[in-house]
Amino acid sequence: MENYSNIVCNAINRCEKIYYDDMTSYKGFSQIYPFTTENIKGYINHFDLGINKSLLTVGSSGDQVINAVLKGCRDITVIDINPYTKFYYYLKMAAIIDLTYDEYFMFFKYKSYPTTFEENEDTLCKNLYDRLKDNLRLLDYESYLFWEEILLNYNNVLIRNRLFSNDEGQIKENRGCNNYLSTKEDYLKTRTMIKKVHPEFINDDILTVKFNRRFDVIWLSNIANYLNEDEIKDMVNRMYNRLNINGQMLISYLYKTKKDTKYQKIWPIIYNIENTKKLLHEFDIEQIMFQSTKGIIFDNKSMSSDSMIDSIIMCKKR
Questions:
Q1: What fold is seen in the domain 205-316?
Q2: For strand 243-254 and strand 200-203, is the pairing parallel, antiparallel, or unpaired?
């Protein structure tokens, strides 16, 4: 990870709005995603995760990790180019341990809370943070120091607007995409299981990082959206070599895309399904379809409408 003091300084600069004047100093650091924008619940059962399985996943909102924990996976490695990912995961972990199900949403939701089109002025509020900060300190001291610096020195709503993405969906979507948030019972089960898991965090670029081990499952989210054909092929080849035999890889998450969705030239190249099949033919890829995040919101399970279906491109190492 980059020098810790530089990371904190960058976060402070973002809160001070200095980052608008010099984006180059942030080396592509993205904002924090409050919740997953993927329907993890829609695809997670297609992967063999359990107590004896290992997972490499992008960090993003931390929801990939938490859902994997609920499936029983304990050996988890997180890679993300955004160093804030680690701090946010531990904030969520401490919240799951110390806050109730309803308080969890109160603390982390901002947009569309408690109802659609409303904003939560109590997001990241001090009284709830005070409830979890002692556990946060024990779980990961760097994360504790980071949030102590940010949450105690800046307005909570300002933080949500400067450090976080506004793409967080509605509560119905958050619950529908995450097994750990589906019910209060699932949340309490996650509380018990998450205490046993200590992920390894790697702050690096997936295109250049080197691993000294292999994994049973690899999730690459929608990284391929931002890559050209050569980069996609190189990433998949490198990650395929990091899979154990019979290991599975989520190559790319595709929003509002079925097997027969007509490709538009303005879309990322990975969405050109026929071209992607040719590009990655040696990996014997398959496309798995499931309810989209929009479908969750509108309770529509129809497989006929592109907008109601998301999918993943995945492969298995034989």
A1: Rossmann fold (3.40.50)
A2: unpaired
